[in-house]
Amino acid sequence: MRELTIGKNDAGQRLDRFVAKALPLLPPALAQKYIRLKRVKVNGKGSKKDVRLLAGDVVQLYINDEFFDQPTEANAFLTLFKPQLDILYEDENLMLLNKRPGLVVHADETEKVNTLINHVQAYLYQKKEWNPRGENSFTPALCNRIDRNTGGIVIAAKNAQALRVINDKIRNREIRKLYLCITVGRMQPSQGKLECFLLKDEAKKQVFVYHRPVSGGRSAVTLYRTLETRGELSLVEAELLTGRTHQIRASFADAGHPLLGDGKYGDGAVNRRYHETRQALYSYRLAFDFPTDAGPLNYLRGKAFSVSDVAFKNKYFP
């Protein structure tokens, strides 16, 4: 914690604007968050961001010391952002990351700073593998997305060539993506295919399932096989043949077997009984099944990567 006393030259400023000037390395969105969380206090008390400071006020800042540094050419980007990544695999072209449930992949209306892509870019910048000042347009990017409350493998491309190849392979279904999930009840049959059309409602951030073509709807195909059943819960492996928003969650719910913990498509009574607030869904295996040329990424052909430690599997199907 550091304290800053307001002098006459700083008096009259809004709290948030004073913090922005005093800590130029602190991202604006993070500064606003810290004020809301009362990690920035005025005279020992939490204050609103628009409070006007008076001469003699003491501002307490419960903020990491590195944000008090002054920006230089070397640290003006994300040098002081401390990346936290679970890296399954990394080479000169890409990274495979095990995203934890609860972390958003890109900034949204709820989170601007603590995102997977920010962790990736800070990591590569600090390793001196990427310098935004030396690039005309390329920025390290994620090749696939996973919902906030779903965990699993995300591919990050380190260069434009790798990004193009992986995007092409995903679009042409040359990368297999397998998920583990827990369904309520037993799928009948125990192994099969779910086919439907999904229509996305942007306002509700939800998809609706149809069993006939509808305007704006997109086909969704999911393969599944039941691995184990205990009581009313089943451990199921699902493979996406298409990659639609909420595809697995909506498809299984439509089949009468929603995912445990799913607050949007699931069974609230069951979720409360098991005290689960996040869908039991994990992108646990990725296989590079390239039937066609992959150019600079041909060395990945035939390789597969898996996450062995999936919390809900360990809990219900140890």
UniProtKB/TrEMBL annotation:
The active site is at D147. CDD domains: PseudoU_synth_RluA_like (cd02869), S4 (cd00165). One of its GO terms (biological process) is enzyme-directed rRNA pseudouridine synthesis. InterPro entries: PsdUridine_synth_cat_dom_sf, PsdUridine_synth_RluC/D, PsdUridine_synth_RsuA/RluA, RluA_PseudoU_synthase, S4_RNA-bd, S4_RNA-bd_sf. GO terms for molecular function: RNA binding; rRNA pseudouridine synthase activity. Residues 13-72 form the RNA-binding S4 domain. It catalyses: a uridine in RNA = a pseudouridine in RNA; uridine(955/2504/2580) in 23S rRNA = pseudouridine(955/2504/2580) in 23S rRNA. Its EC number is 5.4.99.-. Keywords: Isomerase, RNA-binding, rRNA processing. Responsible for synthesis of pseudouridine from uracil at positions 955, 2504 and 2580 in 23S ribosomal RNA. Belongs to the pseudouridine synthase RluA family. This is Pseudouridine synthase. It comes from Oscillibacter hominis.
